[in-house]
Write a structure and sequence with these properties.
The chain is α/β, with parallel strands linked by helices. The protein has helices at about 20-30, 55-60, 70-80, 155-170, 190-210, 230-245, 290-295, 340-360, 395-410, 415-430; strands at about 10-15, 40-45, 50, 80-85, 95-105, 110-115, 120-125, 125-130, 135, 150, 180-185, 215-220, 245-250, 255-260, 260-265, 270-275, 280, 285, 305, 320, 325, 330, 330-335, 375, 385, 390-395. Bound molecules: flavin-adenine dinucleotide. Flavin-adenine dinucleotide (FAD) binds near residues 54 and 342.
């Protein structure tokens, strides 16, 4: 690593997800050109050693493998996770694999818990970028956390995959084999794509364990009236598709309680108890608890309020992107921009350049969000897409989604590495379809 003088100023990026990684990549390219490399040091911090492509976590959770061995788990992990050190120029960016415990914006200081040293460490910053993402939100539903698996991290996806394998391994020798009810709670995009892909996975598991298919049920439960934010028309398309895949949908059914073997919902003002042996929670996320604690307000639902330059209104040396940033939707200023990877990585790339303006004391540019595209795979090689108010569906869209995955790979990796990585994941994911 290039040695730096004691007076070096730290540009600290918290989080190496969609937002943070892209800030680091743009900064590492441009800092030396801006003649700031000698006086500034870029530090990227993440508690995970991996950058995770969350958009395909549902695939990892439901990817079929003949044997669940440590090697197979590694392969599944590599389908969506890339070591952060492979994505940055280690001579230009220092990566610290550590959890951020606290931020003191008055002292311009952060506190870390490093895994290796097992000691806490304090770091000062000249500029701080908040990109710590979101965490699973259980909305205080009784016993939900204890009796379900979330789908937010790579570890969650592997737990679901292995857990389902183990469930069948444990039950297949029983005579008669017991009924298996798998419930996905939360009908947002993640819940819908997970439920849809689950059918192909369970068909493979049934074959592997000689389990009667008719004994395996899949349910999707949603508190609201529609699915995946696709409105009534989109929900109708999903309903038809799920009928084909034999997945039951319960709409307008807020969850009241979850036990090991049942889920209580409220439907038509009545409590209904549904059997459930394996429950997955995809019902919501909240802003990183650390960001909420230090910067959150009621108005911003825990996120940090920023201006049009993605800069904190209260602390000009702090910037925020992705799930941490409270940026209102220009089309409806009462709403916040949706929490999406496509927004986080674009903000990250934009901010990488704006930080250089900040350091050079040049005027900062305004961030203009592009309209997001919603492209949702719904089992097999089939997808649904929403652009503005228009809905499209079909097989071609499933391929388009794969191309979008490739495009992101090409953005963060060199050409051949990106292509290899994409083909590797594609091969694993295709096994279910
Ligand atoms: C299952 C799933 C599927 C999704 N599918 C899509 C999709 O198809 N399309 C889409 O556009 N969006 C999708 N999203 C949303 C998308 O993942 C997020 O909006 C996006 O990741 C936000 O980017 P970010 O940089 O703000 O945070 P993240 O990408 O979540 O990155 C945050 C990083 O901070 C790290 N971190 C958190 N806390 C700490 C701490 N205290 N100390 C150190 N490190 C910490 C985390 O390890 C993580 O690497 C999906 C999300 C999930 C969970």
């Amino acid at each position: 690593m290039v040695s730096k003088k004691a007076t070096t100023k730290n540009i600290i990026i918290l989080g190496a997800g969609f937002g943070g990684l892209n800030v680091a990549q743009v900064l590492q390219k441009n800092l030396s050109q801006a003649a700031l490399a000698e006086s500034h040091k870029i530090i990227l911090i993440d508690k995970s050693p991996y950058h995770v492509y969350t958009a395909n976590l549902y695939e990892t959770a439901t990817a079929y493998a003949k044997k669940i061995t440590p090697d197979c788990q590694r392969i599944l992990k590599e389908s969506v996770a890339i070591p952060i050190t492979e994505l940055i120029d280690n001579k230009k960016v220092t990566f610290i694999n550590a959890e951020v415990l606290s931020i003191n914006p008055e002292k311009r200081e952060i506190e870390l818990k490093t895994h290796r040293q097992k000691t806490d460490k304090l770091l000062n910053y000249e500029v701080l970028i908040l990109a710590l993402g979101a965490a699973t939100n259980y909305f205080n539903i009784p016993d939900l956390k204890e009796n379900s698996l979330p789908l937010k991290t790579i570890e969650d996806a592997l737990k679901i995959n292995c857990g389902l394998n183990q469930h069948f391994l444990y039950n297949y020798k029983k005579t008669p084999p017991p009924k298996v009810a798998i419930t996905i709670m939360g009908g947002g995009a993640t819940g819908v794509e997970t439920a849809a892909e689950m059918r192909g996975f369970l068909n493979h598991l049934a074959k592997k364990y000689h389990y009667p298919k008719e004994k395996i049920k899949i349910k999707l439960i949603e508190a609201g009236q529609t699915l995946a934010g696709l409105g009534e028309k989109g929900t109708e398309i999903i309903k038809k598709r799920f009928k084909k895949l034999a997945i039951d949908i319960h709409l307008n059914s807020p969850i009241q309680e979850v036990t090991k073997n049942s889920i209580t919902i409220e439907s038509n003002h009545q409590k209904k108890v549904l059997p459930s042996n394996f429950a997955i929670w995809t019902g919501g996320v909240m802003v990183s608890p650390l960001v909420q604690r230090v910067f959150g307000t009621e108005k911003t639902r825990g996120a940090i309020e920023i201006n049009e330059h993605l800069q904190s209104i209260k602390y000009p040396e702090i910037f925020a992107i992705g799930d941490n940033a409270y940026f209102t939707d220009p089309k409806d200023i009462t709403k916040r921009l949706p929490l999406l990877a496509q927004i986080a990585f674009r903000q990250g790339r934009f901010l990488g350049k704006n930080i250089l303006n900040y350091l050079n004391k040049k005027p900062l540019k305004n961030y203009h969000p592009a309209s997001p595209i919603y492209l949702l795979p719904i089992g097999g090689r089939f997808a649904i897409m929403k652009i503005g108010n228009h809905l499209f569906k079909g097989r071609l869209l499933w391929y388009l989604r794969r191309l979008i995955d490739l495009r992101y790979s090409l953005l963060i990796l060199p050409f051949f590495k990106a292509l290899r990585k994409w083909l590797f994941s594609h091969k694993i994911f295709l096994k279910n379809d």
